[in-house]
Amino acid sequence: MNTPSRRQTHQVKIDHITVGSESPVVVQSMTNTDTADAAATAAQVRELSEAGSEMVRITVNNPDSAAKVAEIRQRLDDMGCNTPLVGDFHFNGERLLAEFPECGRALSKYRINPGNVGKGAKGDEKFAFMIRTAAENGKAVRIGVNWGSLDQSLAKRMMDANLASPAPQPPEAVMKEALIVSALESAEKAVALGLPEDKIILSCKVSAVQDLIQVYRELAARCRYPLHLGLTEAGMGSKGIVASTAALSVLLQEGIGDTIRISLTPEPGTSRTQEVVVAQEILQTMGLRSFTPMVTACPGCGRTTSTVFQELAQDIQRYLREQMIVWRLQYPGVENLNVAVMGCVVNGPGESKLADIGISLPGTGETPIAPVYVDGERKVTLKGDNLAAEFLAIVCEYVETNYGENGRKRDRSRIIPIQTA
After folding, report:
1. Does the annotation list 223 as a binding residue?
2. Is 396 flagged in the annotation as binding?
3. Closest to 206 measured CA to CA, from 149, 272, 134
4. What is the pLDDT of residues 171-186, one digit of tens each?
5. pTM for the full predicted model
6. Class at the top of the CATH hierarchy for domain 11-286
7. Is 301 annotated for ligand binding?
């Protein structure tokens, strides 16, 4: 599979994770618990980590939350979860880092938004304190500029200069340029304050797809810092998924982007892990990473009035993803497994032969049998009411045989796997 050439950047070490250049694009997420509740926050970090988030950001917005960061880190260590924690600082970050130095030491990376650190000389002092604290603790920093909280003094300066220009640009163009300038100038200040270039990641988040693509293309052309991608306030459900996929896929195809987050608004009662699954599936379907075996399934039509193939595809995909918590370590390379669950004889046998394991279920009016193909060869024909259980047993046997300690596909990963310590 041909994959896009990655943009060359500085490489940033964040604990056991390497970000930038040829290193895998890193999946990131964020908790929505109250950080002051150490038990709930640690539990959600672990849940996100098990779903595949390789770094997790937590809100550090008040003394109660800052006081609990070290405890959260200890709880995670006690659970055997080594996922790096990113501290999300905004208006009072310098005060919290000064009052709770153990918070700064427990975090693996700081996220600083230059637009809301403060104004003028006072803002410069706050920014400098946070950067120096990161440098003293050997921590990486993401300088994260956001469309909704852009430094207004910078925006006004650039708007005034634009109005005085003999050929003024549209206000939207000036605002996009201000985002980029804010990130680059803040990075320059950080380096001057003693933070090494290989400890800096940049982001310039906006909420419109075309704007995000334009801003990141320009930012990527003007620096060698790794870039964090994300469509801010992407939204809920299919809207958020589609918008994020559209924006990030274009940039990733151009080799732009070193960490990603899908900022979905969770539907009431749903797990926060959905945004992790979406991020993984973007990377995997593009051939950039491999996280979990994928199931190829037909959409169904008038030939497939039975729901058996739909239910089987859903059950198999869910089972494979759940098993990856164990399989990731037990069966290296299994994340590249391809399973096909097809609904009739039109494309069923062909797709099944192309997959590692495939089943072609009977469509409407077809003989009630289901041929199973393994590595392109027809292995067995299933019948009766236990198709799902029998096919799942074949999948499990295939995994153990081919990806176990002596399996022929062990360590033959075709796509960069998940990063582990």
Report:
1. no
2. no
3. 149
4. 999 999 999 999 999 9
5. 0.92
6. alpha beta
7. yes
